[in-house]
Amino acid sequence: MKRDSGAWLRYALVLGAAFALLCTSAWSKDKDQSDIQKRIEESARVLNEVMATPDKAIPDKVMNSAKCIAVIPSMVKIAVGFGGSHGKGVASCRTENGTWSALAPITITGGSWGLQLGGQAIDLVMIVTNDAGMQHLLSSKFKIGADASAAAGPVGRDAGADTDWKMKAEVLTYSRARGIFAGIDLNGSAVTQDKDETRLLYGSFLPFQDILDGKVAPSPGSEPFLTAVNKYAAQGKEHGALENYPGSSVGSR
Length: 253
Hints:
Elements: H1 2-51, H2 60-65, E1 68-82, E2 84-93, E3 104-109, E4 115-128, H3 131-138, E5 141-143, E6 150-152, H4 165-168, E7 171-177, E8 180-181, E9 190-193, H5 195-202, H6 208-212, H7 223-232, H8 234-238
């Protein structure tokens, strides 16, 4: 009888451990997916806030001509002397028919932030301006300054037509620290596909190029960012991109 009781006890302990492991795994996956959704919503918030200040916003001309738009909310810069950076965000590219692609999770790491002391969070928006820059992004890994040139973008919703931003850089950058716009140097930073978050977002790994070429349907929860992109990139709106997002309240600016 004691032998049977001991066997049942061990069996119950094994079942309990297995159940706990299963619950922990499910909780961890749910938390990771929640983190991705929060990052998508934060990316949309950053873009909306940047564009809400007319004299400091990204020019309409830049947004209307953008090939790809990437946002990294709360990118961390940590430095004692010369430091580095790390952040996660999402990107979308304009497809051949003018609509915007599903979201591709990205990571940006590296780069010098200059001589400074302390840590700070930066909201970063990157606008890919031409086909060459888009091809670098589609490669799923490129280094700013080596593979693609970057420069701080012009500001002001109604920036003049004489702006020569398109000839200067393949990537225009806009950054904010505590709500204040501040220029940063991203040369040396590497932009890569976040493969782990891609699996979580779509249920399996999908090639970066397939996502950004429009071969993949937007994942549930993508609407906040795609709605913001369509709102400010007029060509996407003109091609009826919002028809894919039922319930969107986006209208003309």
